[in-house]
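Researcher: Sequence of Beta-glucosidase follows. Predict its structure.
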Amino acid sequence: MPEPLTPVTFPTDFLWGCATSAYQIEGAVREGGRTPSIWDTFSHTPGRTAGGDHGDIAVDHYHRYREDVALMADLGLNAYRFSVSWSRVQPTGRGPAVQVGLDFYRRLVDDLLEHNIQPAVTLYHWDLPQELEDAGGWPERETALRFAEYAQLVGDALGDRVEHWITLNEPWCSAFLGYGSGVHAPGRTDPAASLRAAHHLNLGHGLAVSALRSVMPTRNQIAVSLNSSVVRPLSQDPADLAAVRRIDDLANGVFHGPMLHGAYPASLLADTASVTDWSFVRDGDLAAAKAPLNALGLNYYTPALVSAAPGKVAGPRADGHGASAHSPWPGADDVLFHQTPGERTEMGWTIDPSGLHELIMRYSREAPGLRLYITENGAAYDDKPDAEGRVHDPERIAYLRAHLAEVERAIADGADVRGYYLWSLMDNFEWAYGYGKRFGAVYVDYATLERTPKSSAHWYGRAARTGELPPVDAA
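Model: Prediction complete. Tokens:
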């Protein structure tokens, strides 16, 4: 990408942050009363994760959080998005909070504020308490009710100091990778259950918004983070355009429909009628799911390219979401996914910054009046230290600069984008890929857990301090 003739600049109050999630970094899975989540169970099941990797220790953030906060402060970041471990705070998914669990997050928040870093709390990043999964998990209505209770406990404990709140991270992954294709915890492969899970995630989100508002100051802002897809057709053939609409409903409308508009797309209900009759949607559910938000989080990595298939697609799909013989796209077995052309990251995902601008502008129209945050964006590369122990990652710098330039372009085009959270602060447990994929701006030696900022971290820190995007070679 050519360098712009003038520097790219951002608003002075723009949030420059990094993001993480509890199971990927915390470790300490048996300390302080914490009980297993579905990811503890899944990762300890043979064959579920690369190399049998798990998050028992992860990168030991639970014991090293002060070091990690100091790293962010040294880089010049002013925001940090982290998730709370539900089973650390409410081990059975029911009943009163365990104060020692909440105390960890109280200490983390206090340390962030002391370093002038704004905390952003994500309540759920895929780590459902195992006891709730044993009772049926997200396909059951009860889980949505329990989530609202948990949200109120955390909101009551941290709401006086944390102003930025996110209910769910990427509910699409929870519903369709967890209960459809089975490549994420809990590893179930039931298309009807995945749609029930999606609905109860919508319901749980809305109930959690109301629960948070009941215990927090009105100044606090509440959002949800969606990994909405930019879906493009292989051709302009009407059949391919119909395939785009079908996947758009399943990737996007299934969540933003209820959350933003109080209704599912009629075309989604028709397309999935052979899978479920949607009788689990009760009176009042969609009104509850549409609880008013202050902001919307968008997670973006790569676009999707689809076409119609002549018949049913059997076996794994090239949709970038892991290999499984079971589809995460219920009612869309006649849609083909294609690899988009261009450079790719270690995840095999095509690098296409224009998709981020397209996504932002879509949701500027879809959710007028809501502040937008890029709550995840980043890339995995095969990072290695050099002979002096430095980690130079020019590919990631180029990736970040190109995507942040698209954020700035969207702001210039009128989008109300208030912040950007790089995924991720540091290398960590990358779900079913184990420790083999490095997304971090900070390199972690998994043998010693030593942290080393990569050149991309220094580049990003400079952008955060100046509000301008340095040249790619400026790290």
